[in-house]
Write a structure and sequence with these properties.
heterodimer; A: alpha+beta; 7 helices; globular; B: mainly alpha; 5 helices; 0% strand
Chain lengths: 410, 95
């Protein structure tokens, strides 16, 4: 019933004592850069901890590893690979995958000619494509839901922006030959469940999204091979859509003629139909009342200052941040210091592409002393703007409510 | 064999230090052992602490039932009851 690899990982939690316990206490003493509004248990439990190949990130769960990126890393255009968030559903994760022997099978009932491709096949047999895109967990900011909802209690850092390099899934599927009956592509990665009864983490995407020229099988991130814990040797890049579809360690892509029935499609990662301003629909997976999560909602974040600040009257506070959306493109970021009564435009920074973080800056120099709650809100080309108040949903998805930064001018 | 026994047996067979996983101490109260034996087979126990204390009797019960019925957690009916009682009492929302 148990698979050995994961059991060994379980040992760490169950049986370590003595020095490990001391190390744990020492770590707990470090300041963990968590935002406000999370469940109390999160502040008691989260620590800064370094996974193999990673800088210390905010550990929310050891096993499976769920680690978020401290907000300060979003000050750079691209989130460093060793600081990029880590998210797994199931704990049977290979320690490593040999890139020389790794292969992805592309087939299924709706594939004319099933094929198997290794890394060198991807690198030599197809046009190589680079694309900047935000990878954001569907549950980013779940921990800020009010009321709180069960799940990994993500703060602000279950996301990152990277320059991905790989090949178009469309080109690969061109080699396979999709039959006209194909409706979805079913994606599976090398990780799996600890007990056999647990549904494996398998996802599907509609054929139209699979054939989008921006949907990639990527083997590089920011000019380097993917970090193992971000899906090496290769993963799906589904720009604009939440990371649940960005299958890591991809080993199988199957074209199917019927809607995929797996737990992670039919029961998980769903939002109430019609509750959010999203355009992309995944029609073959819609059910009465609920629909699969698809594109990210427009959102922004103040990155610096990283917490409440005080400044003397006459001196300015330089605000810097990022904005992103489902790939329509950010058109505007505005700042309010009076609770949303009036708004001023921030300056947009370098455009790295419509799927990337868009940096922005704003110089806040009020004429009066006082305490200000600064909020930022972004808008996009589709005419969407961040929500003014939380659109509650049971899984805590799509939280794009502006987060106030306290600035005291004395 | 109980899950914890399996774990210990495997520990004896290998000293591979795969994990940087640290112990996640939980409150010592009736049901704690069942939680360690069943829940930690598949996940570290920080999940329990971070999901507290906003879960109430109903939501903890739903979560444990989901773990057993959907995810196949190896729990007997006695284990399930002990785990739910433990979570509600120690990591539940008062009232």
């Amino acid at each position: 019933m148990l698979k050995r690899r994961s059991v060994l990982q379980a040992i760490g939690g169950a049986a370590l004592a003595g020095p490990a316990m001391v190390a744990g206490l020492a770590r707990a003493a470090e300041k963990v850069p968590l935002t406000t509004g999370l469940p109390p248990g999160e502040y008691d439990t989260a620590v800064l901890d370094a996974l193999p190949g990673k800088k210390p990130l905010i550990k929310l769960s050891y096993r499976p590893p769920n680690y978020e990126t401290p907000v300060s890393y979003f000050a750079s255009d691209f989130t460093p690979n060793d600081a990029f968030f880590v998210r797994y559903h199931l704990a049977d994760i290979p320690d490593k995958i040999d890139p020389a022997s790794w292969k992805v099978k592309i087939g299924g009932e709706a594939a004319a000619t099933p094929i198997e491709l290794g890394l060198s096949d991807l690198q030599s047999g197809f046009e190589q494509v680079e694309l900047a895109a935000v990878c954001q967990c569907s549950g980013n900011r779940r921990g800020l839901s009010d009321p709180h909802v069960p799940g990994v209690q993500w703060g602000l850092g279950a996301m990152g922006n990277a320059l991905w390099k790989g090949v178009r899934l469309k080109d690969v599927l061109g080699k396979v030959g999709l039959k006209k009956e194909a409706i979805e592509l079913v994606l599976n990665g090398a990780e799996g469940p600890v007990v056999d009864k647990t549904p494996d983490f398998v996802k599907s995407i509609p054929v139209w999204k699979a054939l989008d020229e921006n949907t990639l099988i990527a083997y590089q991130m920011n000019g380097q091979p993917l970090p193992h814990l971000n899906g090496a040797p290769a993963r799906l890049i589904v720009p604009g859509w939440t990371a649940t579809y960005w299958t890591k360690h991809v080993v199988s892509i199957e074209a199917v003629t019927k809607p995929f029935e797996g737990f992670w499609m039919k029961s998980a990662y769903r939002i109430p139909t019609g509750k959010f301003p999203v355009v992309d629909r995944f029609l073959t997976q819609e059910l009465p009342g609920s629909t699969p999560i698809t594109e990210m909602v427009v959102n922004s974040l103040i990155v610096t200052p990283g917490g409440p600040v005080k400044e003397k009257l006459g001196k300015a506070v330089e605000l810097r941040g990022i904005a992103w959306d489902g790939g329509y493109g950010i058109t505007r970021v505005e700042i309010s210091s009076d609770g949303g009564a009036t708004w001023q435009d921030a300056s947009l920074g370098k455009d790295l592409g419509r799927f990337a973080f868009r940096p922005w800056s704003y110089r806040f120099a009020p004429k009066k002393k006082g305490q200000y709650a600064i909020i930022a809100r972004a808008s996009n080309k589709a005419g969407q703007t961040q929500a003014e108040s939380l659109i509650f949903n049971p899984a805590g998805y799509h939280n794009n409510v502006p987060r106030p930064l306290s600035v005291t001018i004395a | 064999m109980k899950p914890m026994m399996v774990i210990l047996a495997l520990l004896a067979s290998s000293a591979t230090a795969l994990a940087a996983e640290q112990p996640v101490p939980l409150k010592d109260a009736p049901g704690h052992e069942a939680v360690e034996n069943v829940c930690s087979v598949c996940h570290s126990l920080d999940y329990i602490r971070t999901n507290a204390p906003f879960m109430n009797a109903q939501t903890w019960q739903a979560e444990v039932n989901k773990m057993i019925n959907v995810f196949g957690a190896p729990a007997s009916p006695e284990d399930a009851k002990a785990i739910i009682d433990y979570l509600v009492k120690n990591y539940g929302k008062p009232g």
